[in-house]
Amino acid sequence: VVMMLACQRFVSVVRNSRTLSRHVTTWSPVGAAFNAQQRKVDLLQKNADFVKVGHPDPAFRDAAEKACINIGTVVERLNTNVELCRSLKNLLDNKEVLDSLDPDTRRVAELFMFDFEISGIHLDESKRGKAVSLNVNLLDLNNEFLNGTHLPNRIEKTALPEHIRHCFSIDGNSIQIGGLHADSPDELVREAAYKIFLFPNSSLLLCLDDLLTCRNELAKLVGYESFAHRALNGTMAKTPGKVLMPWDHSYFSSAVRAERYKIDPSLYSPYFSLGACMEGLNMLFSQLLGVSFRNEQPMAGEVWSEEVRKLAVVHETEGLLGYIYCDFFRRPDKPHQDCHFTIQGGRLKKDGEYQHPVVVLMLSLPPPTRSTPTLLNPGMMENLFHEMGHAMHSMLGRTRYQHVTGTRCSTDFAEVPSILMEFFATDYRVVNQFARHYQTGQPLPKSMVSRLCESKRICGAADTQLQVFYAALDQVYHGKPQNRSTTDILKQMQEKFYGLPYVPNTAWQLRFSHLIGYGAKYYSYLMSRAIASMVWRQCFQKDPFNRDMGERYRREMLAHGGSKEPMLMVQGKELTLTIFLGHYLPPFL
């Protein structure tokens, strides 16, 4: 009862916020499925996060960006509301009431209390106000830095040799460089892109300094040794401390793979039409989990682009599980990134019915032409499987509360279902079910799949070393203050963990966008891959279509979302270094 009263008051505060309401109503034209005016705060935030990235109209994106900041401000104030915290603490301190709670309710109550504690609820009123102020400041700094990581750098056209200018975007008398052009066969193009794209931006350097300082000040204020200690509290890791040039790494890795194993993406793409890949996923989920996709016609105004497709996810006996909106194709002003957004989380409603989850999968695939369907290269196909792993985590989660539904779990566990899908994507028994040449209907030869898998061994150690460098840099940035520039820290960590030399007058950290969403948690990719590999080897390597294992995987992992401790879902084993190294290598090694 106490918790229900607290939740009701929580919703009341949100609904009565004029600022919040004003911005929420600006989203409604996105469509009925995304009309967030009456949703709860967490889903308001998620919807705004999606709209600011996925909507084709810049006015909508700007409005959603402002809404995110306003919603975040309301949430931070609620996280330091003493009366709400006291009500929840009374519940948790009452053994009789606590023992009567089901596991999901108890877990969510404990997570709410955890949020109160890391937000500084134990501080006096003045310091709580300071914590709120720091968090609100962080919202602005996060937004400023994240936007800056994606901005191109400009240079006068005459500064580059004429014969390579056409490789970049020309705007009048200047050239815009918005990426590393790592796949270019021209060494000069790669070098120019690396040095110009990573050239230090003084204002963004100051922003990063302010961001790290603000995070550290907040962590110290609420009682943590560093921001990393605060961020890792509640994760599986628990605490911190668990003549090639840089612009050549990606290119030469790909070149060696292509030469040694004859991996030419254009030879694979005809077998990986988007339709074939989606059918492959449909067949895999049907055999493994009893789940299939069904195309549905969106209502008028329901989708934000006519290219978006709506899929109903249906179980053979349970019926409708949820909806996936597939925003797969490139278009102007759409970010070139693959991601998953939760629009509506699953939860058990008062009437006993289950609220169906709704998610968006956003990819950057080439649109079809009049004569050719959308053809995916092996990397695109693997990314499709990866993102669909996130979607199925959301679809198959069956938690009582949407606070812990689907991917709303520990950061270092959230990537496990998606990375696991990459193992299916490179298993010939799975690929053979759907990879057909779009013109001839011939299956993809097994030898080509074998070569593709074997090619992943090339430079695997260097790729892993690069990920370790990223993770270590992230931890140092969020550890104890270093009293030196972020570039000096980068240089030292690169020399220590990576092996390739630092290039003077570059600031790669200003393109490290994961510092926002994965601050102090970038290691999660390494840990999640280790766990996913362990699940693959123990459950699916022998038979990727084993229905019993599929049901066990759903029952023991996917169904719980964040309502169960991640380590308990990995058979309660501690992920020691030995286990980590033993399971990090791909199954084909």
Automatic annotation (TrEMBL):
Family label: Belongs to the peptidase M3 family.
Name used for this protein in its record: Mitochondrial intermediate peptidase
Source organism of the structure: Oncorhynchus kisutch (Coho salmon)
Cofactor binding note: Binds 1 zinc ion.
Organism lineage string: Eukaryota, Metazoa, Chordata, Craniata, Vertebrata
Cofactor entry: Zn(2+)
Gene Ontology CC annotations of this record: mitochondrion
Swiss-Prot/TrEMBL keywords: Hydrolase, Metal-binding, Metalloprotease, Mitochondrion, Protease, Transit peptide, Zinc
Keyword rRNA processing: no
Main location: mitochondrion
One Gene Ontology term from the biological process aspect of the record: peptide metabolic process
A Pfam family this chain is assigned to: Peptidase_M3
